[in-house]
Amino acid sequence: MNDSGEGAGQAAPARRKDARRNQQTLLDAAAAVFVTSGVDAPVRDIAARAGVGLGTIYRHFPTRADLIIAVYRHQVDACADAGSALLATSPSPHAALGQWINLFVDFLVTKHGLAAVLQADNAGFEALHAYFLDRLVPVCTELLEAAAVAGEIRPDIDAYELMRGVGNLCIGADSDPRYDARRMVELLIAGLRRPHH
Amino acid sequence: MNDSGEGAGQAAPARRKDARRNQQTLLDAAAAVFVTSGVDAPVRDIAARAGVGLGTIYRHFPTRADLIIAVYRHQVDACADAGSALLATSPSPHAALGQWINLFVDFLVTKHGLAAVLQADNAGFEALHAYFLDRLVPVCTELLEAAAVAGEIRPDIDAYELMRGVGNLCIGADSDPRYDARRMVELLIAGLRRPHH
DNA sequence: ATAGTTCCGGAACGAGGTTCCGCTTTGCTC
DNA sequence: GAGCAAAGCGGAACCTCGTTCCGGAACTAT
């Protein structure tokens, strides 16, 4: 992928070597800190772990949200890609939808605090919210439509709404042994089955 | 109800008159601020609105969470009480459950930011979390059991889990016109219907 | 009125995100 | 290899927000 990630750049601006290295160091440090302290870890912790100043972090990632996006971009993309694949290989669209949702839930649940930060109203995290949705809503729409066409689910479900619902259900799933987000999501998915008769 | 709310007090400790008045002023100010700025409004805003210093607020409500609890205590209690009533007057336990959940959802959705703060992992808000659950889980358990006994829903649903799921679904429901928490909760409730054979 | 509490106000502290700016490193040129 | 401008860097400083502290003002019982 592009290092700068912006514009329709012809000739890459050729960033300095140290800058490039720092960016990677930061990504690694952030990933490590997120695993141990959750996505809400203070920026200072990440900077310290990377052995870098605060200014450096903000030069590369203007906002905490951008750093989070960068860390998880690959996994989100992988999840999105898995959608079409599942649809192609699953026996039924409904099964594909279920498996795909499980993928998403597993992803969220294993990232301490990520789900909580996906909320649209979380000031400063609009970019995160937008990235996840831009990437996943089209896939979800595809799966929902296939299942609806197959008559397996109600046809009036909006992918955006479902994604938000699933994301919400995953909030706090870690850190509370009494709450099993997976089970709740199963109920939600069960709820959109077309009443068979 | 008791003003102090603690102990099995015989003779009221007779707080000073100004203290009592300030407590009420604060409650009113907080309620007003919560309506306009949401439950996340800075403590300073509430103090200012009440025309009172910060020390005063913390004397009466040791923590932001305590203030929130105090403001909504009545409504939570009312919701809890409505549970038994609905069960007594509804045609079926399942109908009662549905109506009761709707009551709860309406309550959460109309309180900007409340649902988001109910999370167990929200540091400092354990008291809020605990109050809501202590009050509502028993009612929910009662409704679930009645519906389960009537054979209308799956018998393996835990009230705590369901309450958390519903609460989670309500997060950010205001502030996002594209997301309708009520619809998602409906799906969830639909999902716990016993698959009729 | 007076002493003894109880309360009050708001400065101050700590934590976190973000901004700013003087200094360092790098990459290019001669 | 030396010189220079641009690109980067570090971390002090600023802002917001919750919470704590304490000197002084406001009650109340006597």
TrEMBL record, chains A, B:
Region entry Disordered, spans: 1-20
Entries under InterPro entries matching the protein: Homeodomain-like_sf, HTH-type_TetR-like_transc_reg, HTH_TetR, Tet_transcr_reg_TetR-rel_C_sf, TetR_SbtR-like_C
Matching Gene3D superfamilies: Tetracycline Repressor, domain 2 (1.10.357.10)
Key words, A-Z: DNA-binding, Transcription, Transcription regulation
Coiled coil: none
Sequence intervals crossing the membrane: none
Protein name: TetR family transcriptional regulator
